[in-house]
Queue: 2 jobs
Job 1
Amino acid sequence: MLRLLRPPAPITPETPDEALVRRAQKGEHEAFKVLFERHVLSVRRFLRDLIRDTDAADDATQETFTRAHVQLPRLGDHDRFKPWVFGIARNVAFEVKRVRQHEPLEGEDDEVPAAVIPAPDPERLLLDRELEGQFASALAGLSEHRRAVLLLRLDHGLSYDDIAAAMGWTLPMVKNEIHRARLAMRASLLPHLGGPTP
Amino acid sequence: MSRCGKTHLLERAVLGEVPDEALREHAAHCPRCRHELAWLDTEVRLFRERAARDEVQHLWRGVAARTVAPARRPGLSRVLVGLAAGLLVVLGVGRVFVQAPASSSGRDASIMADSASLEALMTENAFTAADEDRCSRPGQGIGFHCGYVPASLLASR
């Protein structure tokens, strides 16, 4: 009885997503706001990388979290908020792309370079505007799905299993797409970072 | 890609998911893993530096406006406290309305009983002619000596 009468524990940076999800599901708006703050940077960057339009990505980010708020009561795996919200973001991004129809869903990188790509030269890894732009172009050059899985792995740190769940793919498909995406990225960055062949 | 089967492990090490010391030591002696590790380090660094430039403070306002904070549903503890408070109020009010009549009837019964005993006493101690005679005799000493209490006096108690 006393335990029931006790006020809820304060939310701290150490409060796990799982606890926040449970509290948000009970209607605690502050818990949902903390979930938003924790993941909005990644989700927005992911959407911007998929949609390639900052304003549209901002709208899509808000749409993603609005949908997450509506669908949150149905999230059974309380500790899987991150892959779950990325799955929503991925759907929103593809919907935006379909509506806009400015570019095809399948992209330009079907020709994956087969040759061994030389290692990057650390001396040339000085992040300047030029490299920043080249990196963005390399990402943009990937097909939509391939870009999505590479971002989910390297930028957002999702496990292969979580990516498979977010994308609705099989695990081998995820691994294959990430492998191909990585090869294509490296081929694009090579002129700016390339060093000697191993 | 590394051909010695460690690509996946190298990736996890670079992302901080597993300790990287042993793998980096291995890579120092394995050209293919060194090559893979160099690319992975580069990619992750590029992603991280890009992430550090993001700014998203303005986005919550839009989400908050579209996810209107629902009227806070009372938690179980609040419900229990509310129920307990309501029960106390009901019991308190009930006590006033239920016990007040009971107490007044009890008081009446007590008065009736007192009256009955008084009547019996008065009957039992009825002032007879003999008593009058006895009392009319001059007293000895000061005060009332006849040993009878007049009914008027009893009634005034």
Job 2
Amino acid sequence: MNIAVQAASAPADAEPMSGAPPGSVVLDKVSVVFGELVAVKEFSLRVKPGEFVSIVGPSGCGKTTLLNFMAGLLPDGVGRGTMLVNGKAPVTGSHDIAYMLARDALAPWRTALGNAELGTEIRGVPAEARRKRALDLLDKVGLKGFENHYPKALSQGMRQRVALARTFSLDAPILLMDEPFGALDAQTKLQLEDVLLSLWQREKRTVVFITHDLSEAVSMSDRVIVMSARPGRIIADVPIDLGRPRSVRALQKDHAYHELYSQVWTKLEEGLSQ
Amino acid sequence: MNQPKPWSTWQIWAARIAFLAVFFYLWELAANTKFIDPILIGRPTGIVKFMWEEVFVTHSLLEDFYYSMGGTVMAFTFGSVAGILVGMLFVTSPTTDAIFSPILTALNAMPRIALAPLFIIWFGLGLGSKVAVGFSLTFFIVLTSTVAGGRGVNPDHVTLARTLGASESQIFRKFVLPSAVPVIFNGLRLGLVFSLLGVIGAEIIAAEHGLGQNLSVLAASFKTNGVFALIFLLALIGVGISWGMTALENRLLRWR
């Protein structure tokens, strides 16, 4: 779980890009075009190593498309401009990234432990090491004692905790998250946000977090990027200097947080009315 | 409105047994009083007597039973293995599916029992022709459910697998196959019943041994008690198969 080691072992043929340090995500004038439809237009963004960046915007603004581009999930030829993930062009299945979906995508035929191990298993981590890591993470997400439960016996919040364990088990410097808590109720969401922050604060990996929930973005991130409606472009880039470590639940009563929230909200409104 | 209190298990069993007792008593009565000719309906006591003699005295029913079950097990094993393999080939290769699927659909639409005379010419009066008929039924049922199961993979699983860098074979082994198992299992359950159907049907047409052959001989000589005995035996086998498959399913698919 050492990011420096990861970078050093990166293939030598990966272009040594100045200004694209390991663990960073660099987008320069990125556009995504599906036939006639321009989903994203000339989007530029630099995510520093270890930075937690949220991208918020109305539905259909192309934020998920951007994330899929980073994950190498887009079909060939639809993405334009420069995109560097960990200093390299995005590739499907790159070991530099761990991807988390809105739905938990747990395999119902695997236990919580089996699901937490699924990612590392596919990426070829030896059985003993991956089991140890999965058990540790299940403990950290608060599922000690539920290791041998099948997903059907877990609540939605618990299932998403397993998905968090599966994601963090991966030895990837960059985490891409597509509205991972979008389907949860408000209380569970706050709990899971704190679980995510506690996991992230241990290792400080780079996170690109997609959401349409502004309060979620402000409470967790180092920076919030606000996108316009389609074709998506940046209408605000707001640093969130709320200090670390934080607790999302404690922030709910915090003045500075509400102040920042209304600032970003104003920008969002301005951008949308233009 | 007051919901009536549901009956307990033993009450339900008692009612069920009472119903059957009355049913068989009336049957016996109808036959004894010649209200209905016993040639047509036999007699419950006669059926039990036939069973007893054939199973415990002459053992001839047991031999037929083993022939029929052997044929069913073989037809089921070959049919389901072939069905699963071809089904998986269709799932992994859409081109193969596109070429052969209509041909197989046409074959499947054919009433398979009509092939029995042909199979008897090819494979003789013994087990071979019975297995062939059972196979021809089971294969298509298992094939169809395998294809349906293989197509039913959750798109989220495929997305996740791709971001993890899973190879095609990993996606197949870790996602497509396990998610297809419950659907395949439904096909297997049905396939086993149809194996039995194919074997018994072919035996009725022409055979040297087997429950079906015995059944047709008994019917041809108006031994109605024997015919009923075999029908009850076949029904019991069907129930046993169903029960066994459910038990196996509950064991293998605990995660559902």
